[in-house]
Specification:
With 479 residues, this protein is of the alpha+beta class. The protein is 67% helix and 7% strand. It contains 13 helices and five strands. A five-stranded mixed beta sheet has the order 1-2-3-5-4, with helices on one face. Helix 3 runs antiparallel to helix 7, helix 9 runs antiparallel to helix 10 and helix 12 packs antiparallel against helix 13.
């Protein structure tokens, strides 16, 4: 008994030790299991993340695309400007209004009659529905997208109205033939005005409405839903293509206009630079004369005081400095790669040679040149020669064989009159491209006349000829 009593207290201790060992073994076994589970869950989470990434990207792009279509459908391209408003003819500008009025005047009574007699719709409801489906075509001339919203809503509402009518069986549903005609006319206005994204949105909305009606009552919907969907897409495509081509041509014309303006401006600047280079010789000649006279004055004039000698020395130094500055200016004005002209600048004394060369080129020309032209200023002398040269060059190029008369004479009031008149071309056909002019024609003449303070009158003659008349001052002018 005593032995049994001594063994009994030890049983709880033994059970506690067994439970401890079992818990320790369970912990050691659960650790690898948890680690294995974590290792298995990692790739699964990574695979799920990789799969969700493209789905989120697709969803984001889809939402952005839907949002962009919604913005396009709610934002007109050019609000308030009528179709063909930029046409030059007033009849063409009024054409869209006439076409829209003709559609409304035709479709409105026909739609009311068909809805009342064929579909047995209430008269008041039929009148309101027909007005909403046709009258906005007048609005489509200036605001086609807003007109589409009104007509599209009226067409969808009309489809449900016809569904409840008694005479819909065996007749086109949900669109009546008048709805198809008016909708296609609206597509024409939309395609000529709205953006490509708005046109795609309109087309998709048309298809979505047709799909809804097909699902709502498939046994009544016929092929008219598909017909309107296809025809509206074709009209939008054709009109958008025509509008794109017209926009491209208009941009091309604008670019050509800009190019012509830039070309004219460049020609003007080139001619001004050429005139400045030529006048450099004239001014440089006068400055050289001043330098020589100032340097030689102490030797030519005996008994000059020291103050006068210093003054002449200062004048000569200033003239030489001015010549150096003019040479630097000439370097700036000279075209890249061009060489300086070493021949002296021509004047009226070479007009006779110029006319003779023109005669040899096949133009019968006669010259009337005054004898007393010795006191002509050098700038006027050069400008008069260049004007005659350019006028004769134009005659050779554009009126070959035309009888020509050249006159250079002072009028006795301090002005030099230069006149070049030619008759119509003697040789029929395309003008030839030859001559010794500068290539800038009337632009150069005007610049030379403006430089000297004179005036120029040019223009065609009644007999088909041309007249160039320049008036140049022989003395200083106020300008």
């Amino acid at each position: 008994m005593k032995d049994e009593q001594r063994r009994r207290p030890r049983l709880p201790q033994t059970a506690a030790r067994v439970r401890g060992r079992l818990q320790s073994a369970g912990s050691r076994a659960a650790g690898p299991l948890r680690a294995a589970g974590a290792r298995a869950a990692g790739p699964l989470r990574a695979a799920g993340t990789r799969a969700a990434g493209p789905l989120r990207a697709v969803g984001t792009r889809t939402n952005g695309l839907v949002r962009s279509f919604g913005v396009a459908l709610a934002t007109p391209t050019a609000d308030g400007e009528a179709l063909l408003a930029r046409a030059s003819s007033p009849w063409v500008r009024l054409l869209p209004y006439g076409v829209a009025l003709a559609f409304v005047a035709t479709l409105l009574p026909v739609t009311v009659t068909v809805l009342v007699q064929d579909y047995q719709v209430n008269g008041a409801l039929a009148g309101a529905l027909a007005t909403a489906q046709t009258a906005p075509l007048l609005l489509a001339v200036t605001r086609p997208l807003q007109a589409w919203w009104v007509i599209f809503t009226a067409d969808v509402f009309g489809g449900f109205v016809l569904l409840a009518a008694d005479g819909v069986d065996g007749r086109p549903w949900p669109w009546t033939p008048m709805v198809v005609v008016g909708y296609l006319a609206l597509m024409l206005a939309l395609g000529l005005r709205e953006s490509r994204r708005a046109l795609i949105g309109v087309w998709l909305m048309t298809g979505a409405a047709a799909t809804v009606f097909e699902l709502f009552s498939p046994h009544r919907a016929g092929g008219i839903t598909l017909l309107l969907f296809v025809l509206s897409g074709v009209v939008l495509l054709i009109t958008a293509t025509l509008r794109g081509r017209g926009d491209a041509e208009r941009r091309l014309v604008e670019q050509e206009t800009i190019s012509e303006a830039e070309r004219a401006r460049r020609t003007l600047l080139e001619e001004r630079a050429r005139i400045a280079r030529e006048l450099h010789d004239v001014v440089a000649h006068h400055m050289s004369v001043i330098t020589v006279q100032a340097d030689s004055a102490p030797y030519r004039i005996p008994g000059l005081p020291d103050a006068a000698r210093e003054e002449f020395t200062s004048i000569a130094a200033g003239a030489r400095e001015s010549l150096a500055e003019m040479r630097r200016l000439l370097v700036v004005l000279r075209s890249e790669g061009a060489e300086g002209e070493r021949a002296p600048q021509p004047g009226l004394d070479r007009v006779q040679q110029l006319v003779e060369a023109t005669v040899r080129a096949g133009v019968p020309a006669e010259l009337s040149l005054a004898a007393d032209l010795d006191g002509v200023p050098q700038a006027v002398d050069l400008s008069a020669y260049r004007i005659v040269q350019e006028a004769l060059s134009n005659i050779v190029r554009h009126a070959p064989g035309a009888a020509t008369r050249v006159s250079v004479r002072p009028d006795g009031t301090g002005w030099l009159n230069v006149l070049v008149v030619n008759g119509p071309a003697a040789e029929k056909g395309s003008p030839v491209e030859r001559g010794s002019g500068t290539g800038h024609g009337l632009v150069g003449m005007r610049e030379r006349v403006r430089l000297t303070g004179g005036s120029l009158d040019t223009g065609p003659l009644p007999d088909g000829g041309f007249r160039v008349a320049a008036r140049l001052p022989l003395g200083p002018t106020d300008s």
